[in-house]
Write a structure and sequence with these properties.
The protein is mainly β and 236 residues long. Helix content is 7%, strand content 53%. The radius of gyration is 21 Å and the shape is elongated. The N terminus is likely disordered.
Length: 236
């Protein structure tokens, strides 16, 4: 599988506003152009008035709101489903302390790129797998909206066995721990020799989620989105 970014992308195309499926409280990338090199920040969508303006939180950096002025040009990038969409806009009005939000011009032209539906992100998350014979501590080594790759020191169930999976992700705002506990079907099993000599072999399990909770699905989307725009090396 290619590790280069274009491998998971299709050509850019025009999108309608509704196709972005924006969610109030969703995380967005907020790119300023006040210097020669664009600067990337993260922000949160508060809301919008169709064809008039959008409302987003002012990004913070080092504990303080970034500098914004009326008329500043921005690029906003959002991740929705298997699409990454971006559009240009202008700061219409800044609401300073204690509100810290900003009105942006409503997007006129939206460019979008489709991504692999099951794009995976490298992780190192402790988890538990529950089978008919008990619960086993494991690690997740990659995640997507459709499934995960699990490493276990001992063999679990056979192919096509249904298991319970439990792990935690961090949700914003507030760095809250949210338990993700889907049912999953084991699709493949392999044995891997660790890179460090002297350690025992580990089993890897590719699992597919079953009827993932929509809230948890969105959290996994955000995990993929943040890796995509902040650290492409994490994309499998």
């Amino acid at each position: 599988m290619s590790s280069t970014p274009p491998a998971g992308e299709a050509k850019t195309q025009e999108y309608e506003f509704e196709q972005m499926n924006l969610q109030v409280g969703g995380r967005i990338q907020f790119i300023t152009h006040r210097t020669i090199k664009p600067i990337q920040h993260f922000s949160t969508l508060i809301g919008w008035s169709k064809d008039e303006y959008m409302i987003v939180k002012v990004p913070f950096e080092n504990g303080a709101p970034i500098a914004l002025n009326d008329g500043d040009k921005l690029t906003i990038r959002v991740f929705s489903g298997v699409n990454v969409c971006s559009f240009s806009c202008v700061v219409q009005r800044v609401f300073p302390r204690p509100l810290f939000y900003v009105h942006l011009s409503f997007p006129v032209s939206i460019q979008g790129t489709s991504l692999r539906a099951a794009m995976r992100v490298k992780v190192d998350i402790p988890a538990q797998v529950t089978t008919p014979v008990g619960t086993t501590s494991v690690f997740l080594v990659n995640l997507s909206v459709s499934g995960a790759l699990i490493e276990s020191a001992k063999r679990l169930s056979e192919d096509d066995a249904e298991v319970g999976l439990s792990f935690y992700l961090i949700a914003q705002p507030g760095n809250r721990q949210v338990r993700i506990n889907p049912q999953a079907t084991i699709r493949n099993i392999n044995m891997v020799k660790p890179a460090t000599g002297g350690k025992p072999d580990v089993f890897t399990y590719g699992v597919q989620f079953i009827d993932l909770d929509p809230v948890h699905y969105t959290m996994l989307q955000n995990l993929t989105y943040e890796a995509l725009i902040a650290d492409r090396q994490k994309i499998v």
